[in-house]
Design a protein that fits this description.
Length: about 260
């Protein structure tokens, strides 16, 4: 038995009464796309008006909260101006890549979601955890090796700038090949965020500073994941080149971060 209700609702949603009829040519001019776009634009304008109104009515509260966060960061030893410079450099690189005609963000995100939905979640989680374990072991091995020849700070910097980008971006590459892109991204970032949160709290860093810093790192991981996934959708050679790009960008990110601590 066929249910006609969903079909009727879909048919009715096309706003037949809004269609235009040309009696001379006897052709229908269907304004469906125009109607949908008009509604979307209207909704965007309404939401923007509400958001603007919210900002205006809460301007003092928002300004006060931002100032409090800045004060906490400064108290924690963070140089706000240097942080802004680092953010501006990364934003510039990211913007150039996103504006590239060969990089389609929405299409890549759609492919990641589709891959996640149609895959076996147990298999994806198992693969993600396996990749994560290998990455942690490699990072730990090389960090221990560097400690035999260098000071603690230098060993940490070498691991962060060279080893971590190499193994972590390779981990993303493997997760993409194994159709576990989103699952690995979630598992890895939960682990890394939690690890840094624990260690930095024990080292006396303020919670706002940790959250801001680690959130920026999650965004970096998301950016390099999108670059690799987009390229892998185009072919194996493009995927390998994107892996190199991801390693370079990741290394640059970590270099700018650790250079302030050496």
């Amino acid at each position: 038995m066929i249910s006609v209700s969903p079909m009727y609702e879909q048919f009715n949603s096309y706003n037949i009464l809004d269609w235009q009829f040309d009696p001379i040519t006897e052709n229908y001019s269907i304004c469906l796309q125009e109607s949908i776009l008009t509604k979307q634009i209207t909704n965007i304008k309404l939401n923007f008006a509400k958001f603007t109104s919210f900002l205006d009515s809460n301007k003092e509260k928002i300004t006060s909260k931002i100032k409090n966060i800045e004060n906490q960061l400064i108290a924690g030893g963070v140089n706000i101006k240097e942080l802004e410079k680092i953010g501006a450099k990364h934003a510039s690189i990211s913007t150039k890549q996103i504006k590239s005609k060969n990089f389609n963000v929405s299409r890549t995100i759609d492919s990641i979601i589709y891959e996640f939905q149609r895959g076996n979640i147990f298999s994806q989680i198992t693969m993600a955890i396996a990749i994560l374990c290998v990455i942690v072991l490699l990072n730990s091995f090389f960090h221990t090796l560097f400690l035999l020849y260098f000071s603690k700070k230098v060993a940490w910097a070498l691991t962060a700038v060279i080893i971590a980008p190499l193994v972590e971006e390779t981990g993303k590459f493997i997760s993409i090949q194994q159709n576990s892109t989103m699952t690995y991204f979630i598992v890895f970032n939960i682990f890394e965020f939690g690890l840094y949160l624990y260690n930095m709290l024990n080292d006396g860093f303020g919670l706002p500073m940790i959250i801001i810093g680690r959130s920026m790192t999650v965004m970096m991981h998301g950016f390099t994941t999108l670059i690799q996934k987009d390229a892998n959708n185009k072919g194996q050679q493009e995927g390998q080149l994107a892996l190199i790009k991801g390693i370079f960008f990741h290394g640059l990110w970590n270099l700018l971060a650790v250079s302030k601590t050496l």
